[in-house]
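Let's study today's protein:

:::
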Amino acid sequence: MARRRYRFRREPNRSGYGIGLLITVVVLSLATAWTIGLVRYASRIPTQPTLVEPAAAVVVLTGGSKRMDAGVALLAKGTAPVLFVSGVDHRVDPARIRDLIPDAGDSLDQATIDCCVVLGYGASDTLGNARETALWARATERTSLILVTSNYHMPRARLEFTHALPEVRLVPYPVIPPDVRMDAWWRWPGTLGLVAGEWTKYVFARVRIGLADLVSSAAAPSPGTDQEQKN
């Protein structure tokens, strides 16, 4: 009598397929959200100079073209009595600051530098700019600041400065770099990379600030707890 041979069909492992599909959906969702945010971020970048209100000081963030020129021009117009430059390289000699602004002309003489220009050497990024400026502004009792930086950098700079100086009135003054093409920005690889990088940094800054606020609020004692301790 011949023996019967039975063949059992092995069920496919669907767990690995499900995990892969879930990862794909998550990645596509994050990429879509990031792209939508990038488009909205780019649409809010100013493309024209704005009118500026007088303030207690002008703050220039180093790192972009024409920022110093804009800050010196505001100082020369009397928009603010003092110019604070944050993020200056430690190799820059205060006596040779005019070398950084060759087009300043007579608007930045030595007397103006001595009385009205303050250099900050303690920052290497936007977060450092905000912290350095906060220390100086509180030490000198400045209640309003004109914030000068490049237009593509302004949203992140305002985010950091608002968090570091919530009690100070900020007046944004975006500088329009000639080499940043915001008209059809997605067609220019240099501008696209610049704006995309700034948007990514902005997202990480928002997350970091949100987590810091959450930790601070959780660590702060409630009024009821203080009352119980007193009793």
